[in-house]
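In response to the reviewer comment on reproducibility (Comment 2.3), we provide here a single inverse folding case reported in full, input and output, so that an independent group could reproduce the run without further information from us. The C-alpha cells appear first.
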C-alpha cells in the first residue's frame, strides 16, 4: 500500500487512512471552560510563573527594550509565515507563559509600556519550528487538570474530553444508585499522560481508578501527573493488565492508537513530536490495539459494566461491527464529539 499524506478529518474523497490519521487534532488552543472550541483549549496558559519581566518601565529605559506589543506582533507574523495554525493565539500564550500571567492580563499589558520577556524570541523560534505549544510551556489542560507534557507523550486533545465524559456520567449514575459508600472501579487502558484516569479519579469521588501504559516515556509522564490522585498506575501491556480485576470493573475507557500503517501525519507537530506508539494502532488498518482494548474491556467488566473507546470518525462503522460481532456487548452506540463527528463507540457488557 502506498503511503499517504495526513489530511484534516472532513468528509472528502481522501482514502480512509488519510481521514483516520486526520482524526488527531494537531494544535488544541487556549482553555476557558471545561469544554471549549478546539482552538481555545490545549494551548492554554501555564499557571506556573515563568521569568516575569517588569510590567512597566520608566521612559528612559523603554528606548533600549522591545515593547511587549511590538514583540507579540512580530511573533505573530513569524508564526504565520511558518504555517502555525493559530499564530496570534500562540504568540500571546507564549508571552503570557513567560510573564506568568493569564492571557487576559496579557491583553491589558499590550496597551501599556510592558516589555518583551526574557526568552521570548527563543520560544517563538521553537514554535515556528513547529514544536507543539504544550511542549514549550510544559503544560496541557484537560478538563479540570493541568498536565505536565513533553517529549515522549501524546498531548491530550479536546475531543477526548467528551469521551471521558461518557465514562464519568456512567460512574456518577452508579454512585447515585449505589450510594456514597459503594466501591466503584474504573480502568483507563493506554493512559498516556494520565488524562483520562486523572479526570475520572478527580471528578467521581470515592472511585478506585486503575491505569496502564506500555511506553517507558509516557509512563514517566503519567506517574508525575497521577501522583496524589489515588490512581493505581501499571507499567505494562493493556492486553494482560489487571487480571486481578477480571469481572469486577464498572467502567473502562480507552483512547488507543488507531491510525493505519499507511497514514503519514501532514501536520508537522504530530509528525515530528507525537510518539508513534501513541498514534499507530498496528496492522494495515490500525485496528490491532482497538481490538485488544475491546477484548481487555470485556475481560475486566462485570455484566452491566460500561466500555467506551475513542476512534477516528471514519472508523465508526468498523468499531460498531467489532463490538457487535464480539458477542460481548449490548446497547452498542456511536457518540459524536463537540464538532459533530463520530468520535467514540460504547457498549454495555453482557
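Designed residues, in position order:
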Amino acid at each position: 500500500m502506498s503511503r499517504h499524506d495526513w489530511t484534516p478529518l472532513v468528509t472528502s474523497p481522501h482514502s480512509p487512512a488519510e481521514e483516520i490519521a486526520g482524526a488527531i487534532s494537531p494544535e488544541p488552543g487556549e482553555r476557558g471552560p471545561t469544554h471549549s472550541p478546539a482552538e481555545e483549549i490545549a494551548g492554554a496558559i501555564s499557571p506556573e510563573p515563568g521569568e516575569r519581566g517588569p510590567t512597566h518601565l520608566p521612559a528612559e529605559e523603554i528606548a533600549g527594550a522591545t515593547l511587549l506589543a511590538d514583540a507579540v506582533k512580530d511573533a505573530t507574523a513569524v508564526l504565520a509565515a511558518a504555517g502555525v495554525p493559530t499564530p496570534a493565539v500562540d504568540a500571546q500564550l507564549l508571552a503570557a507563559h513567560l510573564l506568568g500571567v493569564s492571557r487576559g492580563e496579557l491583553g491589558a499589558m499590550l496597551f501599556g509600556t510592558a516589555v518583551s520577556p526574557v526568552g521570548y524570541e527563543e520560544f517563538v523560534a521553537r514554535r515556528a519550528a513547529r514544536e507543539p505549544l504544550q511542549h514549550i510551556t510544559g503544560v496541557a489542560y484537560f478538563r479540570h487538570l493541568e498536565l505536565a507534557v513533553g517529549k515522549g507523550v501524546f498531548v491530550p486533545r479536546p475531543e477526548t474530553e467528551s469521551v471521558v465524559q461518557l465514562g464519568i456520567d456512567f460512574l456518577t449514575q452508579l454512585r447515585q444508585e449505589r450510594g456514597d459508600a459503594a466501591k466503584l472501579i474504573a480502568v483507563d487502558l493506554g493512559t498516556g499522560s494520565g488524562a483520562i484516569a486523572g479526570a475520572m479519579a478527580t471528578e467521581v469521588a470515592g472511585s478506585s481508578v486503575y491505569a496502564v501504559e506500555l511506553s517507558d516515556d509516557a509512563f514517566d509522564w503519567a506517574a508525575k501527573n497521577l501522583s496524589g490522585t489515588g490512581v493505581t498506575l501499571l507499567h505494562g501491556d493493556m492486553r494482560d493488565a489487571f487480571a486481578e480485576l477480571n469481572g469486577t470493573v464498572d467502567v473502562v475507557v480507552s483512547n488507543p492508537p488507531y491510525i493505519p500503517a499507511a497514514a503519514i501525519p501532514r501536520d508537522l507537530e504530530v509528525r515530528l513530536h507525537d510518539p508513534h506508539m501513541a498514534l499507530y494502532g498496528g496492522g494495515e488498518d490500525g485496528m490491532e490495539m482497538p481490538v485488544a482494548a475491546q477484548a481487555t474491556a470485556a475481560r475486566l467488566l462485570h455484566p452491566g459494566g460500561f466500555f467506551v473507546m475513542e476512534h477516528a470518525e471514519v472508523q465508526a462503522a468498523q468499531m460498531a461491527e467489532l463490538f457487535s460481532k464480539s458477542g460481548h456487548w449490548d446497547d452498542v452506540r456511536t457518540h459524536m464529539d463537540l464538532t459533530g463527528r463520530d468520535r467514540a463507540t460504547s457498549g454495555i457488557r453482557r
